Every structure is written in C-alpha cells, then in structure tokens.
Amino acid sequence: VGIREQLMVATAAGLALSGFRPIVHSYAPFVVERPYEMLKLDLGHQDLGAVLVSVGASYDSAASGRTHQTPEDVTVVAALPGWHVYVPGHEEEAERLFRHAVGEGGRAYVRLAERSNERRRDVEPGRIVVDRRGRAATIVVVGPLLDAVNEATADLDVSVLYATTVRPFDRASLRANAAELVVLVEPYLEGTSAADVSAALVDVPHRLVCVGVPTVEHRRYGTRREHDAAHGLDAAGLRARIGRALAAQT
Prior knowledge:
With about 250 residues, this protein is α/β, with parallel strands linked by helices. The chain folds into two domains: about 5-110, Rossmann fold (3-Layer(aba) Sandwich); about 130-245, Rossmann fold, CATH 3.40.50.920. It has helices at about 5-15, 30-35, 35-45, 75-80, 90-105, 145-150, 170-175, 195-200, 225-230, 235-245, and strands at about 25, 50-55, 85, 105-110, 130, 135-140, 160-165, 165, 180-190, 205-215. The strands form two sheets. A five-stranded mixed β-sheet has the order 1-2-4-3-8. Strand 3, helix 5 (about 90-105) and strand 4 (about 105-110) form a beta-alpha-beta unit. Helix 1 (about 5-15) packs parallel to helix 3, helix 6 (about 145-150) packs across helix 10 (about 235-245) and helix 7 (about 170-175) crosses helix 8 (about 195-200). The chain is globular.
C-alpha cells in the first residue's frame, strides 16, 4: 500500500474480519503514530487481532530526522486497551516473542531495535527475568539496554530485573524482588511503566527513579549513539544517573 499507513492498518482490520492473522510492519512512527486512530477504532474498537512489528525504535534512524524518531510509541500503544507490548533485547528473543505474539491471538506490538545485547536471555512472554541479585537497589531494565545497565553497575550491589514484555507488566515478579530503591530504565519515553511499578508496590515503602528518553527535542539529528549519550542512556550516563539515585539513599 505504499506510504498509506492508515490504509495499511485499516486493511489489516479487514483481513482480521475475514479470519486472517495480519502482521503489519513499518518504521515505528509510521506503524504507531500516523495510523493511531485506526489502531484505536479499526482494530481496538472492533476487538480485532493483529501483530504490529516496528523497526527504528526511538531514534535508530536519527539522521533521517524527527519524522523517523518515536520514543513515544510504547506510551501511546499502552494507552489503548487490550494490547500486549514486547521489547526484545536480542534477535533470538525477538523471534521467540514474535512467534508467541502471532500464536496468541489478540493485539500485539513487537518493537525491534538496532541496539542489541551481546547474548540472549531465556525470556518467557509476560515474565520478568532476574539477571542478577543485589541489595542496594532494584533496577528494572527493558530490552536492549540490559548490557549498558550491567556495564554501568558492574561493581554495585544491585539487583537487575530484565523485562521484554512491558504490557502486561509482570508486577508479581517485581514485587517479589523489589528493594526500597527501584530504578526503571527504559529505551523510550522515561516513566512509561512508572504507573505499573507503583501499582505493584502500592503498599510497599519504595522510591522510584525513572530513566529513559526525556521529552526534549534534539534538532541536530546525529546518530543513535549520539542520542544515547545526549539522553544519558549509554553506560557512562546510566552510571551517573543510577549513582545519583543510590547516593540520595544515604
């Protein structure tokens, strides 16, 4: 259908009405933001199933300009009822989660990124993986930021929980492994899952610090790595932000 992304999603809804399991693929801003009304009405309001698969993540194609940047995508999809959202951090995890999304029915969004962790984890759809255990804080990290978080905290006594399914959020696993300080590290708009963390720990004393892409505009497009550094999402930036959170505990 060319660059008619609204029509692409509407066509997917028509295929779903005809008994097919449609898979819709494009850059994140073109599969989420541009056809958002069709996600809400054609798929959501009619309670139809489809799988959206995006590339580009928050700013993988930063040099293409703001049109190809979308750190808001998970936030806006999560605002719609009935969607499952998967953010793998390795290509083998991506295949596992994609196959699950296709087979489970319903509406799913699979967010792929250029950035990747060096090795895969044994992820289960809907579950958080405990990557390592510590006492000073619990860091919940989403998808492709796991390696950077582990590098940034290698000498710190912290637990690292790895999330690749962010909707529905695995509140039970977080609750079972939460320290008083919880740091939520997301490769998209910061604080996207803050409400889920707070709901999981509603009756547990805790302090939540959110780390992610802030709501700012960088008009010098640069590269993905330059954006990571500008937003404090490389290892050095994460070390500084997590270090400040830990220092505030004492």
